[in-house]
Amino acid sequence: MASLGQNTQTEEGEIILLDIVNFLQESWKKLALAAFLGAILGFANWSFLGSYSAEYVLLNNNNNNNNNNNNNSYALNLVSWKVLQKSLPNLAAQIVDEGKAPEGQDGVYKTLSTEAWWQKNVKPSYALSKADIKDLAAVGKDLDQASTTIINFTLEMSGSSRVSAIDNVKNAADFMRSGSAYLQLRNFINGYEGEIISSQADIQKQITSTEIEMSFQLQRAKNLEELYKRFPSNASVNQSVVDPKDSGAKYLSISTQIVANNIDINQSKENLQRYKDRLAQIAIIKAYIEKAKILVGQTFDGIVLVKQLLEAEQLVRAETVQGDIKRQEVLDVIRANLYGVQARFTRGLEATTAPTSSGKKGMIKSTAGGLAATFFLALLVLLGHRVWINLKSGVAK
């Protein structure tokens, strides 16, 4: 019985193998034709729908002339770049939603509105790669800092033609610079607006507290003057060093207490003047921020915006400062910050070479994909047809 079963299995195996051989003999021409047609379709798809690719390198320059390798002296450091990777797609999406994309660049901005594009197509190059760090026996503080220092960014963009790909990658680089500048300027304006809200109330509180304290100091001065008239013999100056506010200060000579109290009064007056000067400065900031907020809402181009904000600063300076050096100080700080942003995203992120474009990529992949797809599709159709014939013949028997 066992030998009979083995013979049966052998015969079945021979029958199945024979069926496969017969199937291939009958169908190889059809499979070859299908594969050939699939390869042609894949090549045609690559020819008509394939895209060119272009690369553009932006240098991440050190803004300090002393060659200081501090990450903060570069246009972008690792932290700021990671923030921009999240923020720039949202800004591009906002520009598209509001219909403010530059003429003819809607498609580019829609591409830039996806976070995945920034992760894949903008590649930072670091001063030290992971392989360089592994080759070093020990990583000191300077080398550790160099491992996170970005020296350039390589942007890659595709297009239907070589010229289109180059234009697209240039537009992407322009948006990276202008969008980054815009986001920093917007944060700059928001920061000053928050400072106005928080500082104004706090300074007013300090003014009130100082005025109350000074009223007691003035009353104390009046009382000491009366004591000085009543006890002139206690007017000699005490040379011992004692804090007038200490509990033992009452044992000092009256003249010493008068001097110490007058020093406190003068300090309170100085503090009051400082607080009032700061309020005047905040009023200048407020006047500037009102103009700046209007400008921020009119454009998303940070390079254009920073020029407009500098013009607004000059206008506020002409209207309010009028030779007041204390008020001029706050506008000097604003102007310095604006020039810093302008330098960071014009000279800090700049290209020294033109974009490079390669020919269409993926011809082999597209052709092979078409070949494989049609081959297996034809194989499934022919096998299905063979199975159907076998079923019909079995039913007929």
What coarse outline follows from CA principal-axis ratios? elongated
Helix tally equals 11
What are the secondary-structure elements, in order, as H or E?
HEHHHEHHEHHHHEEH
Task: Provide mean pLDDT, rounded.
Answer: 79
| Sheet/helix structural class | alpha+beta
**Cα gyration radius (Å):** 39 Å
Low-pLDDT residue intervals, each spanning 5 or more residues: 1-15
Into which percent range does the helicity of residues fall?
Answer: over 70%
Main beta-sheet strand count, sense and barrel state:
5 strands, antiparallel
Proportion of strand residues: 5-15%
How many beta-strand runs? 5
The N- to C-terminal Cα distance equals 29 Å
Describe the SSE topology.
Blueprint: H1 2-49, E1 52-60, H2 78-97, H3 106-112, H4 115-121, E2 122-126, H5 130-135, H6 141-146, E3 150-159, H7 162-230, H8 254-296, H9 302-321, H10 325-346, E4 349-350, E5 356-358, H11 363-396
Antiparallel strand pairs: 1-3, 1-4, 1-5, 2-3
Helix pairs in contact: 1-11, 2-3, 2-7, 7-8, 7-9, 7-10, 8-9, 8-10, 9-10
